[in-house]
Amino acid sequence: GAGVSQTPSNKVTEKGKYVELRCDPISGHTALYWYRQSLGQGPEFLIYFQGTGAADDSGLPNDRFFAVRPEGSVSTLKIQRTERGDSAVYLCASSPGGRAVEAFFGQGTRLTVV
Amino acid sequence: AQSVSQHNHHVILSEAASLELGCNYSYGGTVNLFWYVQYPGQHLQLLLKYFSGDPLVKGIKGFEAEFIKSKFSFNLRKPSVQWSDTAEYFCAVNEVNTDKLIFGTGTRLQVFP
Q1: Which of A35, A60, A99 is most worth mutating to test chain B (most B CB atoms within 10 A of its CB)?
Q2: What pLDDT was estimated at residue A98?
């Protein structure tokens, strides 16, 4: 497709469960970002990839959060032992990379932990 | 740590009024600067960007922003807003030696006809 695709668009899960959120970036984009957006807040940086490697994962809140991008395209954000505080919209963006980054965002996955 | 501040959290205007939204960042090195917009129910979209050159940049829909390096600011302006400009506006900063993009908390703009 032409844009960044995120699935599912909505996810409701019980506290303590494991969830996976998927991001399909724009074809050819080398950089991929994950953000978390809570109500009334700006996107909070979680992690970004250059190719297959995590270039900066300093925004991941704790070791329950993990992300992979094994082939340098699709990425999965994984959250273990979900907590109610994890409820937010998780945004994915991709960029051609290089010095002048311009990120293109997906619609996001709304995660609700009950 | 690098941070981005947007001091106007909620702005209410009538159509045809002029708009200026503030954005300040804390990083002292070379940066790229962005304004993103999120219309109700839609994803974040790029409004305009500054990489280098003329500090006054023009974006889509009549928006412009001015980079003032001495003030670490990148304020967004529009001379005459429209009802369709109702949205949330986010300033973002990127350090040029990384691809990390940091956002401000956003400004909610409501324009009444």
Answers
A1: A99
A2: 63
